[in-house]
Amino acid sequence: MLSEEVFNFQDENGKDREFASLKEFYYQHMAKAHEKTGKYESCIEICETAFKQISKFHHKNNTWLKARMYYSKCMLQENIEDAIIEYKELAYRENYWFMYHKLSQICFRYNKVPEALLYASKAFTCRFEHEKMVNLMSDTALLWQTIGNNANAKFFFQASAFYRKRQGWPFSEELQYAIRTLEIDVDEKPNIRVVQNISSDYVATIEGKNERMEGQIDNILSHGGSGFIKPSQGGSNVYFNMKDVFGKKTLVKGEKVDYELLKGKDEKIRAIKITIRG
């Protein structure tokens, strides 16, 4: 009975925009509620119905619905390998750290520890969001401990403890135990570059190391969320998204960077794992 009519308006730049319809919002929030409360079968049904009824999605709601549907399939333990592949393909395509985190949790649930550590590590190669990643940091630390590497685990436990304390959030029993046994100083600001390097090195070891390229920012698109890199060795400019930049949320034209290339399913090339050249 809810309306499928979208609300049209112009933003501050005079560009035409649309808000999602009431029906689209309904399915988005219902899917989220059912997934969060463990009602996985009904979550799948809600998502499937949404895809049948909604002709045009907004705010990437189709992506979030897919993520919830694939996650729910993984939780039902039916055709788990196929379900993980579906979620993996979505995570690799979208390249959001929280999708890799969930993929890691799914694999750990089914005792796939190396895969769980791989996807947790890939999460740290995306845009870094300190306070939002505290649970990911703790989970990654536990995975490093599981394979017997307490040295690496300490870096991730320390990062989680620091940002939790800064926000006034409680420590889990596992984190409290790690602080005591690994002698972690919760007031010491973590070296995020070390965390990212550990993660990148593990990903490279498992997936095969990609060649690092050099270039400089040639253009930033008007919305500020992406742009193009001019390769130092010549050739066509390479598209990049700001979420693939390490350590810095924005870049400016002329900055020199290092990066790797990734070919998507659509055969288009883009830059990932972008770092500022010192």
Descriptive tags:
single chain, 278 residues, alpha+beta, OB fold (Dihydrolipoamide Acetyltransferase, E2P), two-stranded antiparallel sheet, 10 helices, 15% strand, globular
Brief characterization of the structure:
The protein is an alpha+beta fold. It folds into 3 domains: 1-94, no CATH class; 118-209, no CATH class; 213-276, Beta Barrel (OB fold (Dihydrolipoamide Acetyltransferase, E2P)). The chain contains 10 helices and 7 strands.
Overall description:
The protein folds into three domains: 94 residues, no CATH class; 92 residues, no CATH class; 64 residues, Nucleic acid-binding proteins (OB fold (Dihydrolipoamide Acetyltransferase, E2P), Beta Barrel), CATH 2.40.50. Helix content is 50%, strand content 15%. It contains ten helices and seven strands. The chain has a five-stranded mixed barrel with strand order 3-4-5-7-6. A two-stranded antiparallel ribbon has the order 1-2. Helix 2 runs antiparallel to helix 3, helix 5 runs antiparallel to helix 6 and helix 8 crosses helix 10. The chain is globular.
Secondary structure: elements and pairs:
Layout: E1 7-10, E2 16-19, H1 22-36, H2 40-53, H3 61-75, H4 80-94, H5 97-109, H6 113-123, H7 134-146, H8 150-167, H9 173-181, H10 192-207, E3 213-220, E4 226-231, E5 238-241, E6 256-263, E7 269-276
Parallel strand pairs: 5-7
Antiparallel strand pairs: 1-2, 3-4, 3-6, 4-5, 6-7
Helix pairs in contact: 1-2, 1-3, 2-3, 3-4, 3-5, 4-5, 5-6, 6-7, 6-10, 7-8, 8-10
What is the succession of H and E elements? EEHHHHHHHHHHEEEEE
Report the count of strand segments: 7
- Spans of at least 5 consecutive residues whose pLDDT stays below 50 are none
Mean pLDDT level: 90
Between the first and last Cα atoms, what is the distance in angstroms? 58 Å
Number of domains: 3
Estimated radius of gyration: 21 Å
Biggest pleated sheet? 5 strands, mixed, barrel
Overall body shape: globular
In order across it, which strands form the biggest sheet? 3-4-5-7-6
Strand portion:
15-25%
* SS class: alpha+beta
How many helices does DSSP assign? Answer: 10
Quaternary arrangement of the chains shown? single chain
Q: How helix-rich are the residues, as a percent range?
A: 40-55%
